[in-house]
Amino acid sequence: MPRFQPFIGTRYGTETANLDAVIAPPYDVVTSEERARLVARSEHNAAHLEIPVEEDGPDRYRGAASLWQTWHDDGVLIRDDEPSFYVCAMGFHDEQGRPRQTTGVMGALQLSPPGQGVLPHEHTRAKDKTDRLALLRACRANLSPIWVLSPAPDLSTLLEPTGPPVARATDDEGVHHRLWRVSQPGVVSAISAAVASAPVVVADGHHRYETALAYQEERRADTGGAAGDYDAILAFVVELSEEQLSVRPIHRLLSGLGTGFDLAGALSAHFDVTPTDPPGTDLRARMAEAGSLALVTPAGAWLLRPRPETVAAANHSADSSLLDVALAALPTHDVVYQHGVERSLAALASGVAEAAVLLRPATVAQIAEVAHGGSRMPPKTTFFEPKLRTGMVFRAVAG
Questions:
Q1: Does the pTM of the predicted model rise above 0.90?
Q2: H-assigned helices in 296-340
């Protein structure tokens, strides 16, 4: 079972504890243009640390480590005085405009091989892990948490905050983030026990988790197997429930198939392809009603209802796996992952992509079933929102 412990957090040492100017989205959803806006917003924005850019040269990771140390020396960052859990609540409105809140707790999650207390649900890509490992080696810090789901039914009750938060922020999407420290021994013990009661499922952060395992192996080799902070990773734990989670799909942008390629015709070997109205506000409803994916190209739009043989060939029922069966049969092409229907259609309109395949979101039940069954969905299947912001709390990895 997973071991989950409090830790001594590193936080921005601001008087007001208002972190609007210094928080940043997770590294893997930040475009180069957005990073430029973030670092221009404040010389201490977390993006300076978590997203060192290639333009800064081959020593960009060492540069991030130098900033990490300088910000400590200058008092920009401070270490709390005792181990704590950190409860974070994110208030937002969902796609239907309804007010929602996701509340979880950040702590140090003991590393273990995937499948042994910590269950992944997506495959990873080597390039992303190489980048994260170089940054971890240089900074020796967990700059942003992974997100894991716990089936403990009483976890949310344990996380009901009391008193004013120690930090707060509102991000560019209007999500309100509030942070509380929890150090009372009884509450700490109850949270640890609840999380340790059953395996947890990695929701977001598969690359960071596998990177932490690789780093742990390196450090153990260098220290003769000695224990250290590298035996755990900063994790944000949320109860596995529909009430707490909002899952969106990550769509596929296709290019490189060539002018005149009949993509709808090629996909008809795996889907019942039905012409549909141009994308509008009701497209998601049309997809849900038909039980289908959607294909959009400059020539039109189609609903893609999986054929029985496609369902049988897929690893599981998530749209990403169903589509992978069809994509494997296409000529060589390029795939770019994009969350958000509007962003996907904008890429198509600008000519960046030749086609957009829009997916339905994986359900909480599908995610749990895949993880507990020992299989994995394709990379970039799930997009959990809202995204916990980097900069609310960091975890040093000494040793």
A1: no
A2: 308-313, 319-327
